[in-house]
Specification:
Blueprint: H1 2-40, H2 47-71, H3 78-91, E1 98-103, E2 109-113, H4 114-122, E3 128-144, E4 150-163, E5 168-188, E6 191-205
Antiparallel strand pairs: 1-2, 3-4, 4-5, 5-6
Helix pairs in contact: 2-3, 3-4
Length: about 210
Amino acid sequence: AVLLLVYLLLCGESCQEDGSSTLARERELKAEKEFIRDEFESDWLDEASRHAHEQAAIQKLGDLADYMNVFADPSLDPAFREKAGEMILKLFVSDKATLINVPGDAGRKREITVRKMLEKGRKDKLLFSEVRFESVLVVQALHKSGDGSYRGYLACTGHTTIYTGEDTLQAAQPVLIEVHVNQAEKVFGPDTLNVWEVLLGDLRARK
């Protein structure tokens, strides 16, 4: 009888602890959601947040170079290259965004949209490799635009290897990169929140 009483007492304590643990976790989740709402659902970005998003844009520019090198390499597995193409598309505000100085037929330099570049890559008609962006800096800080989103600009030197059919050329081009920070719906568990998202816009020749 004594052992049974001890067992029941221990079970009661365990149940209380489990209940307390569940309530504590629920409070933590609620606090996390409130933090996310306060931090990311705000209608405006303070200076620290704008700086963080500028750094995120610089990181995305580096990701773009990596994905483009994979996508343009015909020696790699097609599924791997296609996944890189999908990741490229996710970096941009639109598939109509412009990429500067992507070589066309016979090595001619011309502007091309993200969509067109992906179409050419799937046909193995891209004539470049070893893309990289160096000396990246913020030339116009993020600022609020008329539609409530934020805009800014990065500048860098874009490097690539171009194949002309007869020669292999090393090309360097000053580039101006448009940066967009828009609010987008993101799912967090059972909730959907509007959070700020960094995307790249047009890449154009810098004068």
